[in-house]
Structure formats: structure tokens, C-alpha cells
Amino acid sequence: MNKKTIIILVILAILVLGLALGGYFLIKDQSDKQREAKQKPEVTLIVKTPVLQTTSYKDKEIQDSYTLIKRLTEAFEEQYQDANVNIELVQFEKADEDNQIIGCFDTNRATDVLYEEYFNMSTYVHTGKVVPIDDIITEEIRSDIDDNYWDISTLNGKTYMMPYLGMQNTLCYNKDLFKQAGLERYITDEDVIQNWSLEDWEVILSNLHSKLQSNKYTMLMYGKNEMGDTHVITLLRSRGSTFFDENGRVKLTTPEGIKAVQWLMDCNKKGYFPANAESLEINDCYDLFTNGQLAIYINNAVLDASISQSGINYGHVNFPSVDGKGFNTTFLTGFEVFDNGDEERLKVAKDFIKFIYETEELLDYSAGAIPCSNKVALKYADVLKDKQKYIDNNNQGWNFTGNVPEWRKVREVFYKDVRELLYGEKTAEEIAKQIEDDCNKAIDAGYAESKLHE
């Protein structure tokens, strides 16, 4: 065998050996990856959301909460390394909420993460299933969201809800009716939310009543049902009452609370409210306002569009307050995490929430409503111009539910007491005590059953 043949054979041997070793290491690598994948826990999360309308400037296909959360879950599943995660997304009708949440406790349909309006989901904190999430809130996350939002998300010093979207209800006023009443000095053409002192309020209400035609009314009021009750509660803070005390009970039998009750009773006696307001609901007042028959009504970023379509020329103003800075009723939508007795599911659920707030792209989806993230609000300032007045007004909100355990039952009795107020057959002191007693009876029953996560 000549030298050339030997060299060729050696080269071929090396190539064969190289291919063999390469195949070995490739198979080994694939085997290692498969073994690693098998070693990761298999985790299924159930994420639920009611049917909620929402929009996003980042993704015009997002028109509801289901599509929004689908974007978030897909992004999380794709990058998560600590487990093989499968997220099941469930959308439900609002009327079926208790069945979907409380009714699924301790079953294989139990919720791990809920995306919902705080208005409803704050009650679930008192079931003992909702976990505090302060351990996933970094300083960067906390500093990016206004303190007012964190206050609403917190109970007994622990954060149970993560704010994502905000909405405010303020008051609005018909500029044409103000002009008819000689109140031009209170009108502005700037796209801002105004504030008037209590003295200004008295001048405005008195002039509107005395100078408008008899088929036009000064200010909204209603007592037929619980719809819009948060706005009446906010009016009851107008003379300095906090409405809730430090123990989470209603406290209205104070000089400030009684003054506010008396003010509403006086407004009714003077004819500032629509006739027979005790038989009206908030939507009746909406009809009056959009028909040009009511001077002061409720407004928010959602109502802006429909009120504008009615052709009413209107401005914005906060609810009255002693300090003249005013109040708004702030509504939040965000996330809760539930403990279903599985440590791995709980870890992944928390990681999912943290991932959302640490990923710029996912936070950006909140730019459509009022984003709770200040970074998003600044980044999308150009397209959020119509909402900038609300963003600037964030700090005038307050926690109108008090995060009490039976908020819905409080609502069931509160509006009936408002109706009594409008009947005018009792004193302000009696009405204040009646509201306090009826609401606290519902709240006490809730606290008797309440338990926070341990």
C-alpha cells in the first residue's frame, strides 16, 4: 500500500470518527435537552376575565379583555424557563362571575389569575384565597405607578391587586346652560378638569336654578337603584367627611358627614335636583343631560364620546371638596393571584404578573384607556391627549369601596337610604345614622366571615 493511499485512509478515518463523535454529541445534546424538559414541572394556569371592552393604541385588534390577556399569556408562555407552562384563558359573562370565581374554589376549574375591575374583585381578597403580591413588586414597578392607585390596591399594608388600567368619573357641565344663567366666569375652553370652591358651588347651583327654564334642572340625583351610588357617596364627602373610618366602617354621624347630608337635602328642597329624583336612576339623568335639560352630570373617558355625539358643549369639573381641590371616583382594572394549594402554580402565576410589569411591550398594551404606568402615559402622550386631563387628575381619586368585604351588600342598602334622604321626612342626623347603621350591618357581617391569606 503506497503512502498516498495510507494518507487518504487516515483522512477518511478521521472524517468518519468526526461524524460519529458529532452525531454522538448531537444525540447527547438533544437527549440532555429532552431530559431537562422532562425535569421541568408541567404547570397549567387558569386565567379568567369577564367580558370587558378595552382598546389599545399599540394593537388595534385588541377590542376586549380576552384579546388583551391572550397577548400577555402567549408572550409569557413563549419565554418562561422555570416550567413547561400551559395557560388556559377563560372569558365569562359578568352575571356569571361569582360562579366562575367563588363557585370554582377547590376544584380543577379554580382561578389562578383574575383580570377584572376592582369594583368587583376587591371582595375576593376577604376569601383568604387572594395572595399578597408585594414580593413581586420591585421598586421600579412601584415608582412607575401613582400612590393613589397603590392605596386602592392595598389592605392592611399588603398589596392584593395590581393596577393596569384606570378610569375616572368626574362631573361635567353644560356650557350653554351656564351661559344662560350668567355663569360665564366659571367656564373654560381648555381641555382640563376644573375645580370650584364650596362657595363657587353655591353660587353656581343657585343661579342655575333661578335663571333656567322650569323644564331644566341644575344637578343630577337619583335613588331608584344602586347604579351610580359611588357618586352620591363622593358628594357625601364634600364637607370633609372621609365616609369610611380607619377601621373600615362607614362613619357619617360626624359634623362633616351631617353637613353633607343636610346639603343634599337642602339641594332637593330648593329644586336643584330633577323632580322625583328618588324614582330616577342615573341613566335617566344621562338622558336629561344629553337632551340639554340638566346642567351638571357625570363624565368619564368612555362617556366623552357619547356625550360629544349628543352635541352638548360641555366642560369637566371635579366633585366638590372643602379644600377646593375636588374629588374624582377612580375605577381600576388589574390582576389578582389566587392560592389554590399548589406552590408551583402559585409561583408561576406570580411570575406571570411580574413578567407583564417588567416587559415594556406588554405594559404598552395599556395605552388605550388610562394606563396606570406613568412610563406608558409619557410614551404615548401624543395619542393620549384626550385622556391627559384624567392622567393629570389621578391624585384626586379616593378608594370609594374602602376594600370592605361586602361592598355589593353595602350598595344594596345604601341607595334605599338615599331614597329616604330624598323623601325629606327625616332629619339630616337621622339619615346620617341610618346610612351608617345599615351599611355597617352589611360590613360587619362581611368582616365576621372575612379572612385574609396567611
**CATH-assigned fold name of the largest domain:** D-Maltodextrin-Binding Protein, domain 2
Based on CA atoms alone, the radius of gyration comes out at 29 Å
State the CATH architecture of the largest domain: 3-Layer(aba) Sandwich
According to DSSP, the number of beta strands is 13
The best one-word shape is: globular
Q: Provide the β-strand percentage band.
A: 15-25%
**Residue share in helices?**
40-55%
N-C termini distance: 83 Å
Largest sheet properties: 11 strands, mixed
CATH superfamily annotation of the largest domain: Periplasmic binding protein-like II
Structure summarized in a few sentences:
By secondary structure, the chain is of the alpha/beta class.
Give a structural overview:
This protein is of the alpha/beta class and 454 residues long. It folds into 2 domains: 43-167 and 331-398, D-Maltodextrin-Binding Protein, domain 2, CATH 3.40.190; 168-330 and 405-449, D-Maltodextrin-Binding Protein, domain 2. It is built from 18 helices and 13 strands. The strands form 2 sheets. Strands 1, 2, 3, 6, 7, 8, 9, 10, 11, 12 and 13 form an 11-stranded mixed sheet that branches. A hairpin with a 2-residue loop joins strand 4 (154-155) and strand 5 (158-159). Helix 10 (255-270) crosses helix 18 and helix 17 (407-423) runs antiparallel to helix 18. 40% of the residues are buried.
